[in-house]
C-alpha cells in the first residue's frame, strides 16, 4: 500500500455528513454512551478507537438505528444526517438503513448465492426494474468491493463458501449495492488474516471517494492507516476527536496518550 | 509482595500411569459400561415389545375364507317372481340364512364329506355371509334363480383354529363351535374350499360387533385419524408458527410476554385428558358440535399440539444466528422481510420436524378422544371432507382401546394388529421428518 496519507488528509473542504449532539445511550441501567457530540464529514474515513466495552460499536449502531432491535436500549440526544434528525418519528429505519449501509464484525453473508447476496438489497428497495439492471448493479457493487474478478465466474455459488476475506468483501458489496451515502464498519477486519485485512483496508481507502466511511477498529495501526479523522472513546465518553495525525502524534488528553502508547485498554 | 514458595516438582515417568490417572481411567471405563448397559436394556425392551406385538398382531392380517356355491333360490328371494326391487329388499338378511345352510350342505355332499354327529354345519361360516349375499342380490336381481360362487369369511373360531388359539379339546367346551364343525372345516380345506389369505378387510372395513369379530376392521378408525391429522395440520401449523414468529421476533420483552411464555411451557406439560374435558365443555356442550366427530377431536388435538409446535418452532428460530438478522436489517430489510426472507427459510427444517413430531404425538393420543365420545361403535364411514368432519368416526388408538375390552380372542389379536398399523403410521411420519430435515437443512 502506498502511503498517500498526507494528501488525503486534506479534508477540510468536505461538508458535514452526520452530526450528533449530546447523544446518551442506556442499556437498561447501564449508561453506555455519555454525551457524545461530533461531526462526521462526507467522503472521509472516520475511525472510532478505544478499549473493549468503551461504547464505540454502540455509538456506531446508533448511526443507522440498529440499536432499535435491542429492546432495552434507549437513546437520547440528536443524530442528524444531512441535517435531518434520524430519530424523528417520521423516519422509517428501513429507509435510513438503505442510506446508511453497515458491515459487521464477523462476515455474515446470507446462505444464498453470491449473486443473491448482493441483489437482495436492490430487490427489496426496488432499485432495479429488470434483470439486466439488477445484473449491472450486482457487477458494479462487486467491482467496487474489489471482489468481482474473484467471483465473476461463480456468481451462483453459495456466498458462504468463500474465504473469510472474500466473504467480508462480499458483505461490503452487499452494503454498497443499495447505493448508501454512509458506510458503517464495525471492526470489519477483526476476523480476517493480514492479507485479507490489507485488501479490505485498500478497499476502504477507495470507498472513501464515494461514501462517508465510519470504521470501528481495535487496531490503532489500522486507524492510522485508513482514516483521516479519529475519535477516541473511553468508558462511554468520547475523549478526543480530531485529525488522525494529530491524535496519534499530539494527543491532547492524557487518556488518549496512555491508550495509544499502550498503557490503558 | 510475599515470595511465592517453589512447588517441588514430582519426579515421575509418563510411561507409567500414576494412581490418580489410573483411578480416573477406571472411572471413565465404568461410565462407558453404564452407558452401554443402559443402551442394552433399552434395546432389549424395544425388541421384546416389538416381538410381542408382532407375534400377537400379525395374525390379524391373515384370515380364513371359505368358497361356497350359493343357490339363489327364487322361492326364497323373490316369491312373486316379478323382480320388483322393493319386494327383493323386503327379504332381510335373516331370510338368507337358509341359502347359506343349503350352500354348506351342498358342498358337503359334492365333496363326499361324512362326519358323524355334525350339527349346524353352516356355523363355520361368518354371520356376515347372509348380508354379503343379500348385497349381491340387491345389486344384481337378474341373477336370482341361478347359483353363484361366493367367498365368505369363516367364523372367528374356525379362523382361530388355524392360528392355534382354538383346539379340538377347547371346542368340546365351546358353545360356539364343535369338534365336528372343525373337522368339516379341515375337510373343506383339504378340498381346497377353505384357505387363509391376506386380510385387506382388516385395514379397509369398519368395526364389527361381538357377533362377527372376524369382520372387524380399522377402516373407520384410519379415516377418522386421518381427518383429525388433517385438521390438526391445517390449524396447529399456521397458528403455532405465527405465534412463535411473533413471540420470538416481534414481541417486546415485558411481563405479559413472560407470562405467555411460562404458560405455553406449562401447557405442553398438561395431561392430555384435561384437554379432553376442555373439548367436551367448550366444543360439545357450549359450541354444540356433534359428539364423536373428527372436527371436535381435531380441535382438541390442535390445542394439545400447539404448545409442542410453538416450543419447537421458537427453538429453531432461536438457532438461526443473529448475524443473519443483522445482515438483513443492515441492508434495509424491514423486520418482516428479514424474518420471512432469511430467518424462516433457515428455521424451516426445524419447524417441519417439530410439527411432524407434534402430529405423531396427536396421532397416538387416546385419553382426550375418549372424553369427546370418539370411543363409540361406528360402522359407517364418514363422508368426504368437509362434511365428513362432522360425521361420527373413531381413531386408531381408541380402536385399540376398544378392542382390548372385548371378550373374543379375535379382538385381542386385532388390537395388536391395530397397534402395528398405528406404529407403521408413526414410523412413516418420523421417517418423513428425518428425510425433510436432511433434505432442507442448510449449513453455513
TrEMBL record, chain A:
Keywords per UniProt: ATP-binding, Cell membrane, Hydrolase, Membrane, Nucleotide-binding, Phosphate transport, Translocase, Transport
Chief place where the protein resides: membrane
Pfam families tied to this protein: ABC_tran (PF00005)
Membrane topology: Peripheral membrane protein
GO cellular component terms attached to this protein's record: plasma membrane
Full protein name: Phosphate import ATP-binding protein PstB
Location relative to the cell: Cell inner membrane
Taxonomy, superkingdom: Bacteria
Domain ABC transporter: 18-260
Primary role: Part of the ABC transporter complex PstSACB involved in phosphate import. Responsible for energy coupling to the transport system.
Annotated GO biological process: phosphate ion transmembrane transport
PANTHER family referenced in this protein's UniProt entry, alphabetically: ABC TRANSPORTER I FAMILY MEMBER 17 (PTHR43423)
The protein's Enzyme Commission number: 3.6.3.27
Organism of origin: Palleronia abyssalis
MF GO annotations: ATP binding; ATP hydrolysis activity; phosphate transmembrane transporter activity
From TrEMBL, chain B:
Gene Ontology cellular component annotations, sorted alphabetically: plasma membrane
Keyword Transport: yes
Principal location: membrane
Keywords assigned: Cell membrane, Membrane, Transmembrane, Transmembrane helix, Transport
An annotated Gene Ontology molecular function: phosphate transmembrane transporter activity
Annotated CDD domains: TM_PBP2 (cd06261)
Localisation: Cell inner membrane; Cell membrane
Membrane topology listed for this record: Multi-pass membrane protein
Pfam hit, one: DUF3333
Gene3D superfamilies from the UniProt entry: MetI-like
Key word tRNA processing present: no
InterPro entries: DUF3333, MetI-like, MetI-like_sf, Phosphate_PstA
Transmembrane stretches, start-end: 33-55, 226-247, 267-289, 295-317, 338-360, 415-436
GO biological process, one term: phosphate ion transmembrane transport
Residue intervals of the ABC transmembrane type-1 domain: 222-432
Xref: NCBIfam families: 3a0107s02c
Protein family: Belongs to the binding-protein-dependent transport system permease family. CysTW subfamily.
Protein name: Phosphate transport system permease protein PstA
Amino acid at each position: 500500500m502506498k502511503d498517500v496519507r498526507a494528501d488525503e488528509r486534506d479534508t477540510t473542504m468536505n461538508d458535514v455528513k452526520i452530526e450528533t449532539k449530546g447523544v446518551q445511550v442506556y442499556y437498561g441501567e447501564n449508561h453506555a454512551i455519555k454525551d457524545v457530540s461530533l461531526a462526521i464529514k462526507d467522503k472521509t474515513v472516520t475511525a472510532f478507537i478505544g478499549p473493549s466495552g468503551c461504547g464505540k460499536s454502540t455509538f456506531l449502531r446508533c448511526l443507522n438505528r440498529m440499536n432499535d432491535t435491542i429492546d432495552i436500549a434507549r437513546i437520547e440526544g440528536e443524530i442528524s444526517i444531512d441535517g435531518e434528525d434520524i430519530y424523528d418519528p417520521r423516519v422509517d429505519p428501513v429507509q435510513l438503513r438503505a442510506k446508511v449501509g453497515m458491515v459487521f464484525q464477523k462476515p455474515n453473508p446470507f446462505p444464498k448465492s453470491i449473486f443473491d447476496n448482493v441483489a437482495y438489497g436492490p430487490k427489496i428497495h426496488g432499485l432495479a426494474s429488470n434483470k439486466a439492471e439488477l445484473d449491472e448493479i450486482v457487477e458494479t457493487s462487486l467491482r467496487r468491493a474489489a471482489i468481482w474478478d474473484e467471483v465473476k465466474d461463480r456468481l451462483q455459488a453459495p456466498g458462504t463458501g468463500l474465504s473469510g476475506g472474500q466473504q467480508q468483501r462480499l458483505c461490503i458489496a452487499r452494503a454498497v449495492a443499495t447505493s448508501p451515502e454512509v458506510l458503517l464498519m464495525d471492526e470489519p477486519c477483526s476476523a480476517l488474516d493480514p492479507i485479507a485485512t490489507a485488501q479490505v483496508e485498500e478497499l476502504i481507502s477507495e470507498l472513501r471517494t464515494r461514501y462517508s466511511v465510519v470504521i470501528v477498529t481495535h487496531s490503532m495501526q489500522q486507524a492510522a492507516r485508513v482514516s483521516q479523522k479519529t475519535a477516541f472513546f473511553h468508558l462511554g465518553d468520547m475523549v478526543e476527536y480530531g485529525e488522525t495525525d494529530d491524535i496519534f502524534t499530539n494527543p491532547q488528553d492524557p487518556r488518549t496518550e496512555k491508550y495509544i502508547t499502550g498503557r490503558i485498554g | 509482595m510475599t515470595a511465592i514458595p517453589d512447588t517441588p516438582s514430582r519426579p515421575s515417568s509418563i510411561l507409567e500411569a500414576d494412581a490418580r490417572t489410573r483411578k480416573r481411567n477406571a472411572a471413565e471405563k465404568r461410565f462407558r459400561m453404564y452407558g452401554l448397559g443402559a443402551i442394552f436394556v433399552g434395546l432389549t425392551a424395544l425388541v421384546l415389545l416389538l416381538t410381542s406385538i408382532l407375534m400377537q398382531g400379525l395374525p390379524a392380517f391373515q384370515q380364513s375364507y371359505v368358497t361356497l356355491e350359493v343357490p339363489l333360490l327364487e322361492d326364497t328371494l323373490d316369491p312373486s317372481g316379478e323382480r320388483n326391487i322393493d319386494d327383493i329388499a323386503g327379504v332381510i338378511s335373516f331370510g338368507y340364512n337358509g341359502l347359506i345352510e343349503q350352500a354348506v350342505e351342498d358342498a358337503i355332499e359334492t365333496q363326499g364329506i361324512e362326519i358323524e354327529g355334525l350339527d349346524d354345519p353352516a356355523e363355520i361360516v361368518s354371520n356376515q355371509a347372509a348380508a354379503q349375499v343379500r348385497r349381491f342380490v340387491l345389486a344384481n336381481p337378474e341373477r336370482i334363480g341361478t347359483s353363484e360362487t361366493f367367498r365368505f369369511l369363516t367364523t372367528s373360531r374356525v379362523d382361530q383354529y388355524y392360528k392355534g388359539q382354538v383346539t379340538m379339546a377347547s371346542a368340546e367346551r365351546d358353545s360356539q363351535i364343535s369338534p365336528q364343525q372343525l373337522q368339516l372345516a379341515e375337510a373343506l380345506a383339504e378340498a381346497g374350499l377353505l384357505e387363509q389369505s391376506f386380510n385387506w378387510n382388516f385395514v379397509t372395513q369398519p368395526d364389527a360387533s361381538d357377533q362377527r369379530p372376524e369382520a372387524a376392521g380399522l377402516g373407520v378408525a384410519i379415516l377418522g385419524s386421518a381427518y383429525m391429522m388433517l385438521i390438526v395440520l391445517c390449524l396447529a401449523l399456521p397458528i403455532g408458527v405465527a405465534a412463535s414468529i411473533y413471540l420470538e421476533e416481534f414481541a417486546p420483552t415485558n411481563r405479559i410476554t413472560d407470562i405467555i411464555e411460562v404458560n405455553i411451557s406449562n401447557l405442553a406439560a398438561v395431561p392430555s385428558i384435561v384437554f379432553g374435558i376442555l373439548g367436551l365443555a367448550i366444543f360439545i356442550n357450549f359450541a354444540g358440535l356433534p359428539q364423536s366427530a373428527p372436527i371436535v377431536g381435531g380441535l382438541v388435538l390442535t390445542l394439545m399440539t400447539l404448545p409442542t409446535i410453538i416450543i419447537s418452532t421458537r427453538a429453531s428460530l432461536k438457532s438461526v444466528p443473529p448475524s443473519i438478522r443483522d445482515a438483513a436489517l443492515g441492508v434495509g430489510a424491514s423486520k418482516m422481510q428479514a424474518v420471512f426472507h432469511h430467518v424462516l427459510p433457515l428455521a424451516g427444517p426445524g419447524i417441519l420436524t417439530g410439527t411432524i413430531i407434534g402430529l405423531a404425538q396427536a396421532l397416538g393420543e387416546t385419553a382426550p378422544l375418549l372424553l369427546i365420545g370418539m370411543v363409540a361403535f361406528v360402522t359407517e364411514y364418514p363422508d368426504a371432507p368437509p362434511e365428513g368432519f362432522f360425521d361420527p368416526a373413531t381413531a386408531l388408538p381408541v380402536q385399540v382401546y376398544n378392542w382390548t375390552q372385548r371378550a373374543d380372542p379375535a379382538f385381542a389379536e386385532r388390537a395388536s394388529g391395530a397397534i402395528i398399523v398405528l406404529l407403521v403410521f408413526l414410523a412413516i411420519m418420523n421417517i418423513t421428518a428425518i428425510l425433510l430435515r436432511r433434505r432442507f437443512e442448510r449449513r453455513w
